[in-house]
TrEMBL record:
InterPro entries documented for this protein: Adenylate-forming_Reductase, AMP-bd_C_sf, AMP-dep_Lig_C, AMP-dep_synth/lig_dom, ANL_N_sf, PA_CoA_ligase
EC number: 6.2.1.30
UniProt protein name: Phenylacetate-coenzyme A ligase
UniProt superkingdom: Bacteria
AMP-dependent synthetase/ligase domain: residues covered: 83-283
AMP-dependent ligase C-terminal domain residues: 333-429
Signal peptide residues on this chain, from the entry's feature table: none
Catalytic activity: 2-phenylacetate + ATP + CoA = phenylacetyl-CoA + AMP + diphosphate
A biological process from GO: phenylacetate catabolic process
Gene designation per UniProt: paaK-3
Record's subunit section: Monomer.
Length: 432
């Protein structure tokens, strides 16, 4: 078996020893930030106090609110002049979460991404077509640099424009694609509806992720496009993609434990759960200098898969994500919180107190619709006025959540009301 780097061959003792050394170094580096300096001193944590990996549990959790509260640079551990990249979550009404990288951080991330791609069979002579978003979103750039690190011809196609995507595949003989699952299904269906065979497209490997999907959806992608599709997991706070990745066995995603420590806890108590039991994933960076993050509560629900992987790697495996421990939505690869939508809606004086976010799936693509009650005086008969308001709300929402929703204006008191907690999200998507 061919490995990309030596860390893939480490046994459990070698992994744990590397984690312990790197955890101490990470704690020492983290204490240079104003946030962790105060947090760790209050908890009595110093690098010397980390004598075993069990001491990790003495470190307080970090939450998304902590990151927001430290906006824009309260977690930075080096001067801004040493930072060369930042990524941020969506959001203009509240503080986004921002992650900074030094050049060495980006180099390490690129190496991890190259390792992931190499593990599933991507090689220097492949042509890699990146069909996900760039910009502040981490998914596009992460895979892009990993493919370039391997030496692949890399096409930064970005999302959408199916005809162009297909033309690029054919003209440049694309052999590997990075694509979100719902768009992969849509693309296959679109090619088929155009009277052509999706199996005739050149890609042999698809890297899929950025949105929840089932095993059935993965198999359908493979069958419709005639390729092998590999699941990936990442989050901006841990760089982005490359945290965990499937091998060719397609039986769980290997967490790169030389770069991260993964824990799974009971989201209610914060205590660890046994292997094989679903809980909340908690992650710690081990190789990031500019902005290390300790014990970050991802809110993603998953489990460690017991047993050894036939591929020979002993880095632990995560099952696919089965849900969230909070109310975050993932639409077209973008993380969206209902509160973001509410903040936009409530800024319009014409909008009433009630709204409903409706999630639908059309031709394999997840869609988001926002039904908005208007105040009685705003629900006028002039359609031009209503259409103008509708477009204005849609534009403001797109600016906030980075996805264009469908906005439906409805009369006051026409949406269902609950005696208890208001139902803000209605998910009508059929599970693939």
């Amino acid at each position: 078996m061919e490995f990309f780097d030596i860390a893939e061959t480490w046994n459990r003792d070698e992994i744990r020893q590397a984690q312990l050394v790197r955890l101490r170094n990470t704690v020492e580096q983290a204490m240079r930030s104003s946030f962790y300096g105060a947090t760790l001193r209050k908890a009595g944590i110093t690098p010397d106090s980390i004598r075993s990996l069990d001491d990790l549990r003495r470190i307080p959790f970090t939450t998304k609110d902590d990151l927001r509260n430290q906006y824009p640079d309260g977690l930075n551990c080096v001067p801004r002049t040493e930072m060369v990249r930042m990524h941020a979550s969506s959001g203009t009404t509240g503080s986004p979460t921002v992650v900074y990288h030094t050049q060495s951080d980006l180099n390490a991330w690129a190496d991890l991404m190259a390792r992931c791609l190499h593990m599933v069979g991507v090689r220097r002579d492949d042509v890699f077509q990146n069909m996900t978003g760039y910009g502040l979103f981490t998914g596009g750039l992460g895979l892009h640099y990993g493919a370039e690190r391997l030496g692949c011809l890399t096409i930064p196609a970005g999302p959408g424009n199916t005809k162009r995507q297909v033309k690029l595949m054919r003209d440049f003989r694309t052999s590997v694609v990075h694509i979100i699952p719902s768009y992969a299904l849509y693309l296959a269906a679109a090619v088929e509806e155009g009277g052509e065979d999706p199996h005739a497209l050149p890609p042999r490997i698809a890297v899929i992720g950025a949105e929840p999907h089932t095993e059935e959806a993965r198999r359908r992608i493979e069958e419709m496009l005639g390729l092998k599709a590999f699941n990936s997991y990442g989050l901006s706070e841990m760089n982005g993609p490359g945290v965990a990745f499937e091998c060719t066995e397609q039986n769980g995603m290997h967490v790169w434990e030389d770069a991260y420590i993964a824990e799974i806890i009971d989201p209610a108590t914060g205590e660890p759960v046994p292997d094989g039991e679903v809980g909340e994933l908690v992650m710690t960076t081990l190789c990031r200098r500019g902005m290390p993050v300790l014990r970050y509560r991802t809110r993603d629900l998953t489990r460690f898969l017991p047993g050894e992987c036939p591929c020979g790697r002993v880095h632990r495996r995560l099952d696919r994500m089965v849900g969230r421990a909070d109310d975050m939505l993932i639409i077209k690869g973008v993380n969206i919180y209902p509160m973001q939508i509410e903040q936009v809606l409530m800024a319009f004086p014409e909008v009433g107190q009630n709204y409903l976010i409706v999630l639908e799936r059309e031709e394999f693509i997840d869609q988001i619709k926002v039904k908005v009650e208007l105040r009685d005086e705003a629900f006028v008969e002039d359609m031009r006025v209503l259409q103008g308001l509708q477009k204005a709300i849609a534009r403001r929402l797109k600016d906030e959540i980075l996805v264009t929703p469908r906005v439906e204006l409805v009369q006051n008191n026409s949406l269902p009301k609950a005696e208890g907690k208001a139902q803000r999200v209605l998910d009508l998507r059929e599970k693939p």
